[in-house]
Design brief:
Chain lengths: 335, 335
């Protein structure tokens, strides 16, 4: 079967993972032992007192930038940038507070730059953060005309008792899926490789990433002790669930609908590769001990489709997905 | 006189400053009032308690990246990255703790990537920080082969009593200069425009930025209440001194030696433009109330040349520089 992979789209995930492993070894210092361990490494958690810490994370939006550039639509890519960082912070139970942006461009073009910042500010408003600082770098020679890059840095507050470590995840617990808005900000290189270069496709891909902060903070405030894990589904697709706890697996029997743009990509890419690369309709997954009703209601009240999609199993690092459109079932391991 | 300016090198500082002003207006939110005001806006200062705060900042290394790429010498650019962030943190009196990197590249090339990270880790060791996280983004299509970008994000601890606001700067106080290692990480586009493209020049420009954290932390711990201002001399050159306090000026009568590479650039660029763009031999300036002897000794013991270079005056936002090599005197205003 001639099915393109993410690697063939120019992004070698294995190579990147091996680099990150070397990086971790190189950077290992005694000070790392003082950090608290948040679930999935979604954020570094730096204690500021006995019971309080600051969670910090950084992210970019990948080649979704090139889409904004191609369509000359710059007002939403900043929302993606904030989303990628803020949705990571909530996975360790942190409440996002402060955002900083790094914005690099060949030559500053006022209108595009203002639109990009407007998107970042919109994202910060959605996430309840303030844009407290940033760096704008004009770098003629590094970026081609019109090209730019964005990186985001986000801080959040978390207490010792509200830190989500993932260690409380156990077989039988409920897995909730919260709908994505579309492709979000991962897998764009592969998507662009297999999709036609039409305005319709490009606009579908550019839809900004959902920001899940407001309902998640509400849920954590109300029933934090019942929330055992939160996975932001980013690069690596549904394998992000494996980040939460190495001793469990997941049986997904009632997945959310797959957005049309991802269905279209799925016509050219094998199902397993799809689930290893894209969010497949689920931007966030929440593991609950006990009834899911309240959690689902809060997400729905905030305008997000959410439902019970399956449960935690005792099959370590195995993800079984049943009843997927047109595919009988899929099993993913953490590799 | 045909003297190239930074603007002619493709970097329009005025345009960038007007963009940053619009950005500040757009992003203004009530939450900003809760931040503490650190001197010069070198870092955002977010309170984590009544007497404690986290200072945060982000920066990049500008087109120094292109030099590393041209020389295929990747092991020091990470030091520059950490320096640009860590030296900003100490200007508000913060002790650097945590660093995160954003590393974007077209295609991940193992050796270069490892060298870049090694530099970041070296920089963190010098600054007493740990590399607690980061993002590595492979973006085929955005970056040309071999090109990459780096952004850094740094956190530090600061207490209410150790926060440097600049408000205590007053006429008659002593201005200390601490030597730079060379061009540091600002003004590279202009430097490249006027210098010959020889290996010798390029290597001089690539010398990594000094990291002043260790002596500054020692000084702040010992005589913090005497230190009224610290200016990291970055983009904008000596105009960075104006960031500290709007009501004073500076008379610099005994400047540090100008590094050879900056002298060479000075043959093609007018003196005023030089002082508005480059560090001119001074990577950091410290304003002390009282005797400078201890401060100078600590810098010298840490291996940095340091001396009294002048004093604070009552001429608001005016900088008089006397006895400069080959130039009788220069006066800079904050514009």
């Amino acid at each position: 079967m001639n099915s393109p992979t993410y690697a063939e789209a120019g992004v070698d995930v294995k190579k990147a993972e091996s680099f990150v492993e070397r990086l971790k070894r190189m950077s290992r210092r005694a000070g790392h032992d003082e950090l608290w361990k948040g679930a999935g490494g979604y954020a570094a958690v730096y204690p500021t007192g006995k019971d309080q810490a600051i969670a910090v994370t950084t992210d970019g939006v990948g080649t979704k930038l090139l889409l904004a550039n191609k369509l000359q639509r710059y007002d939403t890519i900043g929302i993606d940038l904030v989303a990628m960082c803020a949705n990571d912070l909530i996975c360790v139970g942190a409440k996002p507070t402060i955002f900083l942006d790094y914005f690099a461009i060949g030559v500053l073009e006022d209108n595009a730059a203002d639109q990009i910042i407007k998107g970042i500010v919109d994202g910060c408003d959605q996430a309840g953060m303030i844009l407290a600082g940033g760096e704008t770098a004009e770098m003629p020679g590094l970026y081609q005309p019109g090209h730019f890059d964005l990186a985001g840095f986000a801080l959040g507050n978390v207490s010792r008792s509200s830190l989500i470590t993932g260690s409380g995840i156990a077989p039988g617990q409920t897995v909730i899926g919260v709908a994505s808005s579309g492709i979000h900000s991962n897998g764009l290189s592969l998507a662009r490789k297999v999709l036609p270069d039409t305005k319709e496709c490009l606009e579908s891909l550019l839809v900004p990433t959902h920001i899940y902060v407001q309902p998640v903070v509400q849920i954590l405030n109300a029933i934090g002790s019942k929330i055992k894990g939160i996975a932001h589904i980013t690069g690596g697709g549904w394998r992000n669930l494996f980040r939460l706890n190495e001793t469990v697996g997941f049986a997904i029997t009632n997945p959310l609908p797959i957005p049309p743009i991802l269905q279209q990509i799925g016509k050219s890419v094998a199902a397993e590769e799809m689930y290893k690369t894209f969010n497949m309709g689920m931007g966030l997954s929440v593991i609950v001990n006990g009834t899911a009703d309240y959690v689902i209601k809060v997400f729905q009240d905030a305008g997000f489709q959410a439902q019970v999609i399956g449960e935690v199993t005792d099959e370590a690092e195995k993800l079984r997905i049943g009843k997927v459109d047109g595919v009988k079932s899929i099993t993913l391991g953490n590799s």
